[in-house]
Specification:
CATH topology of the largest domain: Four Helix Bundle (Hemerythrin (Met), subunit A)
Largest sheet: 2 strands, antiparallel
Oligomer: single chain
Shape: flat
CATH architecture of the largest domain: Up-down Bundle
Helix content: 55-70%
Strand content: under 5%
Structural class: mainly alpha
Radius of gyration: 22 Å
Number of strands: 2
Strand order of the largest sheet: 1-2
Distance between the termini: 31 Å
Order of helices and strands: HHHHHEHHHHE
CATH class of the largest domain: Mainly Alpha
Length: 320
């Protein structure tokens, strides 16, 4: 065998290309969450009455508004499917291959399969509010995995193990904030599935008082805001790195905007446009929160360690 050929690196997906694909996946998932909300807000939830076909006689939607709103969401979901499966293929072909990126890409495919199944159940149960709520929440988890994948793809391939840039108490506050975000999002789906936008005329709703669940959702958002403010105050007092403060402020900004939109939605009687903004804001808040949390650790480049102190066969540490 030619020694020069043996030393030549195998062709595959470059780290830069993989990073770009991960960013595209984040954008595609955000778009599919927003388009799913558009289906509900326009009353097009049963525009395609069967699944996976649109009608009993056709895969493609007939020339009707509600049918094409629902079918358009399915087309966007198909693009997300391609992006998710493509990410796993890219992770396996990436040079060098990293275990962390492969596992996160596999989690995206699992999220895709879960969403496809739940989406089918949504149609077959005629927009049951519990199933619709689960569908939205799983979509947010799916988005969080994509954001984590994109963030990890930015790390150097030979980085050292993660080191916290903040104290244990601040990490604990960050974890508490993530739990609070999960509670806020869950209660938000209860509000939406109690309110007037069921996705189609006559669909079942939660048998709750809209005023009561909206107040509970608002109170949970206030708790989330209080935790976030306490976290940022602690970071400021301890002289946290600028990158951590910047991401924390971005999360606070997203949370403040989302709260303002939510209260506007409630006091204006749930107009469709404001509800759509609220759903988009939920997606952006998840992105900001995941970016903040993952930014609490640093991964020093391994090149900072003198080459004489490193084993020539030392394995990659980022993906271990």
């Amino acid at each position: 065998m030619n020694p020069a050929a043996a030393r030549r690196p195998r062709r595959g997906v470059s780290p830069e290309a993989f990073r770009l694909m991960a960013l595209v996946a984040v954008c595609a998932l955000t778009l599919t969450i927003i388009s799913g909300a558009a289906v509900r807000l326009t009353g097009s939830g049963l525009g395609c009455s069967t699944w996976p076909d649109c009608t009993k006689t056709s895969v493609v939607a007939p020339l009707r508004f509600h049918a094409w709103v629902e079918f358009g969401n399915r087309l966007i979901n198909a693009a997300v499917s391609v992006a998710s499966i493509g990410m796993l293929a890219a992770a396996l072909l990436r040079r060098p291959r990293r275990r962390d990126l492969t596992w996160l890409s596999a989690a995206m495919v699992l999220g895709l399969a879960t969403e496809v199944v739940i989406g089918g159940i949504v149609v077959l149960t005629k927009l049951d509010p519990v199933v619709v709520s689960v569908h939205f929440l799983v979509g947010l988890v799916f988005l969080a995995v994509a954001v984590a994948l994109h963030q990890r793809s930015k790390l150097p391939d030979t980085a050292e193990p993660a080191r916290p840039m903040v104290g244990r108490g601040q990490i604990a506050l960050a974890r508490l904030a993530m739990v609070a975000l999960a509670v806020v999002a869950t209660l938000g789906t209860v509000v939406t599935s109690t309110g007037p936008h069921g996705g189609a005329p006559g669909t079942p709703r939660y048998p709750f008082s809209l005023h009561a669940v909206a107040q509970l959702h608002g109170s949970s958002a206030e708790v989330f805001l209080a935790i976030t403010l306490a976290m940022l105050w602690s970071l400021s007092r301890s002289g946290a790195p600028r990158s951590v403060m910047k991401r924390g402020l971005m999360m606070l900004l997203a949370l403040g905007a989302q709260a303002a939109i939510g209260y506007t939605q409630y006091f204006s009687g749930d107009p469709v446009g404001i509800v759509a903004l609220h759903v988009a804001g939920a997606s952006l808040l998840v992105i900001a929160a995941v970016q903040y949390y993952m930014g609490l650790w640093t991964h020093p480049p391994a090149e900072l360690i003198p080459l004489s102190d490193r084993s020539p066969t030392e394995p990659e540490k980022v993906g271990s």
